[in-house]
From TrEMBL, chain A:
GO terms for molecular function: 3-isopropylmalate dehydratase activity; 4 iron, 4 sulfur cluster binding; metal ion binding. This is 3-isopropylmalate dehydratase large subunit. It is an enzyme of class 4 (lyase). Heterodimer of LeuC and LeuD. It catalyses: (2R,3S)-3-isopropylmalate = (2S)-2-isopropylmalate. PANTHER family: 3-ISOPROPYLMALATE DEHYDRATASE (PTHR43822:SF9), HOMOACONITASE, MITOCHONDRIAL-RELATED (PTHR43822).
TrEMBL record, chain B:
Heterodimer of LeuC and LeuD. GO terms for molecular function: 3-isopropylmalate dehydratase activity. It comes from the Bacteria. SUPFAM superfamilies: LeuD/IlvD-like. It comes from Acetobacter estunensis. GO terms for biological process: L-leucine biosynthetic process. Its EC number is 4.2.1.33. Pathway: Amino-acid biosynthesis; L-leucine biosynthesis; L-leucine from 3-methyl-2-oxobutanoate: step 2/4. Catalyzes the isomerization between 2-isopropylmalate and 3-isopropylmalate, via the formation of 2-isopropylmaleate. This is 3-isopropylmalate dehydratase small subunit.
Length: 468, 206
């Protein structure tokens, strides 16, 4: 057999059958379900008189719509309440395991999966959400699907797909102090663009990637979709196995050992061929952020805002100008020092305990700047409890941050946490599209440390200056 | 799903790259539990001004493009979220075919499941079709899926590629769950082998 990539191996392990035109029926190990993209799928099953083939390989949570304020009160918005109640009726009718809103296990689906040991190395994992790529950090093949495919997985435990192309992105060397996983993935997207990974599964590798903890790896894989990739992957290693050990739904005892023996085979073979290869030097990556309304508009915090006049292509020049206008920024000005109105630390990209610790290390002993609203939204009830045990909540509250309940919150503007028109937000989330965080809102994507630095200074700031 | 065979329709020019799914349908409209009714919110941020009135400059607010069934656009259409609400919104508006140099993967997949045909053609061909589209009502474009050709108003035929399976499902208007379940025996065999090879594989029960 010719040398195979990690993607090739996981793919081959899950092909049930191949149709005449090369489309595979691919077996799905884990199906993660949330309230926004599932109601039409359950309705489809009901109309066709079908059941879930494997409810025991499925988990449902509510995250997108839920308010992150006081949970003991009823949900005010009728449409949101209806979507949540619809999910609760559906999980009951179809026998799907479910973490309800008031459970400590509730949280953002992409935080909950790894945290509970539901997402494991070597698995195929799908969810009706593009940030399913997050679970690739476990060494799993994980990708977002549409609602029709959600229904297909529910009914058959498979999806129809053609193999992706292989892409290798190596980040070699050692990251400078104060440079985080978020900076790494932003630098990657800045380099290859939002369509750079289209049709590919990206395997992230190299010494700087291997040196990341699991939270950092999840941040990197989370944003693989922002580079247009079908999925992001990181080969499982000792860091992965130690993370998995002891988690609620992970194999235990001899089963764990047997699983690890299998997981250790999940590495690319020597000489495996990739369709596309990209290498970055870790030392060259600086703390960075986005300035525009596409995740590829990445700048080092110490750089100046690009001038559209330097863009030769007319359509691109017009698009850059439109972004500058929308973001209310000036070409040629320094991005650092731009005042912010809101700081959002949360989302499936950056709401894990490690992210909150990084933000707290900046917030400790400081105060949120006058006129800035700063929110901390833990990724799950368990992350929140852990942070409270470590006293991080006190640090944030003393500094003037809001300490909220778990959910998608201000990442996507479909729950009460939204920007108002014209507000500028330093956000640890993953998308800066026009109106993403609320109509007319302006988003700068950055790391938890940089977001906390913006909160305490009131302007976009190099977090390293505060850590010195 | 409605069949897609041949479509002769007005095509709307949307010469912009990276039209993301938040542009096609903003998240605040995803609170529905139905597939229909999203057409009024398609391209909401481009189509309406902050006071809710129509933006007269946006192509789909102009005649004859209010009745457009084909969209001609630039690279990476549908990037961003996996929300199938994006093709649902397009379909509900009346769009049955999108022609672009490239599409984001998930949007591309989702379109087929809803009887929308996404066609990839080189940028320079899209630019020619864009010119045709700007001619308005006198300039209808035909898409013949059986023959895999786009026919310009002057009769020139441009062929396009499509997976045979996807073509078959679109032409027949078939739901692919039924197709997959015809292979249920293979799924059962896979599951039996899995149970033997990976006996440690955990189940979820809460």
């Amino acid at each position: 057999m010719s040398p195979r990539t990690l993607f090739d191996k996981i793919w081959a392990n899950h092909v049930v059958d191949t149709l005449e035109d090369g489309t595979a029926i691919l077996y799905i190990d884990r199906h993660l379900v949330h309230e926004v993209t599932s109601p039409q799928a359950f309705e489809g099953l009901r109309l066709a008189g079908r059941k879930l083939r494997h409810p025991e390989n499925t988990i449902a949570v509510v995250d997108h719509n839920v308010p992150t304020s006081d949970r003991t009160k009823p949900i005010e918005e009728a449409d949101s309440r209806n979507q949540i109640e619809t999910l609760e009726r559906n999980v009951k009718e179809f026998g799907v395991p479910y973490f309800p809103l008031l459970s400590a296990n509730q949280g953002i689906v992409h935080v909950v999966g790894p945290e509970q040991g539901i997402s494991l190395p070597g698995m195929t994992i799908v969810c009706g959400d593009s940030h399913t790529s997050t679970h690739g950090a476990m060494g799993a093949l994980a990708f977002g699907i549409g609602t029709s495919e959600v229904e297909h997985v529910m009914a058959t435990q498979t999806i129809l797909q053609k193999p992706a192309k292989n892409m290798k992105i190596a980040v070699e060397g050692t990251l400078a102090p104060g440079v985080t996983a978020k900076d790494v993935v932003l630098a990657i997207i800045g380099k290859i663009g939002t369509a750079g990974g289209t049709g590919h599964v990206i395997e992230f590798t190299g010494s700087a990637i291997r040196g990341l903890d699991m939270a950092g790896r999840m941040t990197v894989c989370n944003m693989a979709i922002e580079a247009g990739a079908r999925a992001g992957l990181i080969a499982p290693d000792e860091t992965t196995f130690e993370y998995v050990r002891g988690r609620r739904f992970a194999p235990k005892g001899a089963d764990f050992d047997a699983a690890v023996a299998y997981w250790k085979t999940l590495v690319a073979d020597e000489g495996a061929v990739y369709d596309t290869e990209v290498t970055l030097r870790a030392e060259e990556i600086e703390p960075c952020l986005t300035w525009g309304t596409s995740p590829e508009t990445v700048l080092s915090i110490n750089a100046t805002i690009p001038d559209p006049a330097n863009e030769p292509d007319e359509a691109k020049r017009a698009q850059l100008q439109r972004m500058l206008d929308y973001m209310d920024l000036k070409a040629g000005a320094k991005i650092a020092g731009t005042p912010v109105d809101v700081v959002f630390i949360g989302s499936c990209t950056n709401s894990r305990i490690e992210d909150l610790r990084a933000a707290a290390s900046i917030a400790a002993g400081r105060k949120v700047a006058d006129g800035v609203r700063a929110m901390i939204v833990p990724g799950s009830g368990l992350v929140k409890a852990q942070a409270e045990e470590e006293g991080l909540d006190r640090i944030f509250l003393d500094a003037g941050f809001e300490w909220r309940e778990a959910g998608c919150s201000m990442c996507l503007g479909m729950n009460p946490d939204k920007l108002t028109p014209g507000q500028r937000c330093a956000s640890t989330s993953n998308r800066n599209f026009e109106g993403r965080q609320g109509p007319g809102g302006r988003t700068h994507l950055l790391s938890p440390a940089m977001a906390a630095a913006a909160a305490v200074t009131g302007v976009l700031t190099d977090a390293r200056e505060l850590n010195a | 799903m409605e069949k897609f065979t041949t479509l002769t329709a007005i095509a709307a020019p949307l010469p912009e790259a990276n039209i993301d799914t938040d542009k096609i349908i903003p998240a605040r409209f995803l609170k529905t539990t139905k597939r229909t009714g999203l057409g009024v919110h398609a391209f909401d941020g481009m189509r309406y001004r902050p006071d809710g009135s129509e933006n007269p400059d946006f192509v789909l607010n102009k005649e004859p493009y209010r009745k457009a069934q084909i969209l001609i656009t630039h690279e990476n259409f549908g990037c961003g979220s996996s929300r199938e609400h994006a093709p649902w919104a397009l379909l509900d508006f009346g769009i049955r075919c999108v022609i672009a140099p490239t599409f984001a993967d998930i949007f591309f997949n989702n379109s087929f499941k809803n009887g929308i045909l996404p066609i990839r053609l080189p940028r320079e061909v899209c630019d020619e079709l864009m010119k045709d589209a700007t001619q308005g009502a006198n300039s209808r474009i035909t898409v013949d899926l059986e023959r895999q050709v786009v026919i310009r108003p002057d009769g020139e035929e441009i062929s396009f590629e499509i997976d045979p399976l996807r073509k078959h499902l679109l032409l027949e208007g078939l739901d692919d769950i039924g197709q997959t379940l015809k292979r249920e025996g293979a799924i059962e065999a896979f599951e039996a082998k899995r149970a033997k090879d990976e006996p440690w594989f955990p189940k979820i029960a809460v």
